[in-house]
Amino acid sequence: MTLPVRQIALTGATGFVGQAVLDVAAREGISVRALTRRPQPARRGVEWVPGDLADGAALARLMDGAEAVVHVAGVVNTPDPAVFEAGNVAGTLAVIEAVRAAGVARLVHVSSLSAREPELSQYGASKARGERLVLASGLDWTIVRPPAVYGPRDADMLDLFRSAARWGVVPVPAQGRTSMIHAEDLARLLLALLPASEAVSFRTFEPDDGKPYAWSHVDMARAIGAAVGRRVRIVRLAARWMQLAAKADMWARKGKARLTLDRVGYMLHPDWSVSREGRVPPEVWEPRISTRAGLKATADWYRAQGWL
User: pTM to 2 decimals?
Assistant: First the structure.
C-alpha cells in the first residue's frame, strides 16, 4: 500500500502554477516548504524559505524534512537565451543536487510540451535539457509536460482576454491546435504523482483537459470570446505577421514583452496536442474542469481583480 505524502518542498511557489499547488495542498492537508525570493504573507500550512535556485544553502533548508519535491520554478519567457539556461537548466541541476544531498528520493519535475520539439525555440530546448538532467539524476522521478495552462492569476493569456473584451478581436496563429489544462487540474496532478508507484515512477506525462484532438486556435478564440461575453472577430496571423507583432511587443514592453520571437517559434508549430502515450492513468488522475467553464471562471476572476 502506498502511503500519502504529507510534507513536500516546492519551487516556483509564488508563480501562477505554484500558487495553484499551494491552494490544492492546503485543501488536501499537505504541508509545504516553499522557496521565495521576496517576503510573503503568512499562509497556513506553508513555511516560506527565503532564497532562489542559485542559493545552495536555501535549497538545503528547503529540502530538510521533505518527503518529496515538486519542482515548478523555471523561466517561461525572456528575450535572453542565457536566462533560459540559468533558470531551466542550471536551476534544475541545482534542485537535483539539493534533493540528492538531502536524501529525498522522489522528484516531480514540471517541464513543458515544448520540450518535445526543442529545435523550435530556446525555451523548448532549455526544458528538454532540464528533462535530460532529471533522467540522469538517479532519483525516483516523474516528468510532467503541461500544454497551455490557464486560470486565475495567469498573465500569459490575459492579453487575449483583454483584446476580446475591449475590441471583440482575438488574434491567433493562422493554423494549428493546442491542448489546454486548468492550473487547478495541473496542481491536483502534481500532488497526485507524489507517492512513488509503478504507475507513475520514471514516466513522462502530458496531461490535458480531456478534449479529443485538442483545441484548434480558432475554436479557442471563440471560447475566449464566449468567456468574456462577446462574439469575436478572429484574426488569423501568418508567420511574418506574428514575427512583426513580437518585434512590436518587444519594442513596447522591452523585457516584459509577452510575445517574443522565441515564443512565436513554437506557437507556429501546427500541433501542440498531447500524445496518447503521455496520458496519465485514470486511476491516478483525471481532469475535472472543462475548459469552457474554466475560461468563464478565469474571465470572472480577471474582472474581479480589475484586470479586464
Answer: 0.95
